[in-house]
């Protein structure tokens, strides 16, 4: 198995454990491809020899790896997914961030994870992705997202007016700070913080969640995954932002039509023994925890319940 390795080079906690992983992969004769800024950082800090850690472009890492390891938080994993998704390469998130809904394992568990991967003791979970087409005077632009698309008022005063239709039928005109169009994977991200529902990843659905709507009767709505959603920001004097998984583009031109539908590819996430979405909810959102318990009081892996054996860690 060939491992692709990417990560967030701004995380200080990345370097020492990753150097140990490179040593282990080299000693075990397990091939790997490592993204250029990570390889450069390891060599410049004197943690590995340059011959052990040859740098590769991110697209080469995504294409050559049988599994790509993404070291960082959820944002790092999302950026990596934008490279691996079209190839179908399975992706395992290694958390060095804070919450880490998508980055399932902690960095101290990476060697146990490699053991499981080499033994074939894992599964892949197919996650729905979205595609957005924008037709403007400059042509047709296409973006895709694993978590969500967001139309947002860009910090300007006042609301924006967004007309939305589903499969050609008008749904609503939203007067709000913005609108989130989310996948089930993204339902625990920005959408959740604005009152959207949690949708289990295996459900084929698209969620529309308004951001601070002007009218209290305007609520989130769950649509079928085969729906086509068209959005237009109506004319006003302020710019607005369209963001795909947090990567934003500013627009001054109004009445553009954004068309959102299911992407023609999914994202494959690696799941190791004992990992389940409900366990993630319990540990990350502290569901079922006593008031006196904190995240470390429960004494188990972030991804395993009390009655299952988690990855051991270091």
Automatic annotation (TrEMBL):
Residues 290-314 are annotated as: Disordered. GO terms for molecular function: ATP binding; metal ion binding; NAD binding; NAD+ kinase activity. Belongs to the NAD kinase family. It catalyses: NAD(+) + ATP = ADP + NADP(+) + H(+). This is NAD kinase. GO terms for biological process: NAD+ metabolic process; NADP+ biosynthetic process. Involved in the regulation of the intracellular balance of NAD and NADP, and is a key enzyme in the biosynthesis of NADP. Catalyzes specifically the phosphorylation on 2'-hydroxyl of the adenosine moiety of NAD to yield NADP. Its cofactor is a divalent metal cation. Its EC number is 2.7.1.23.
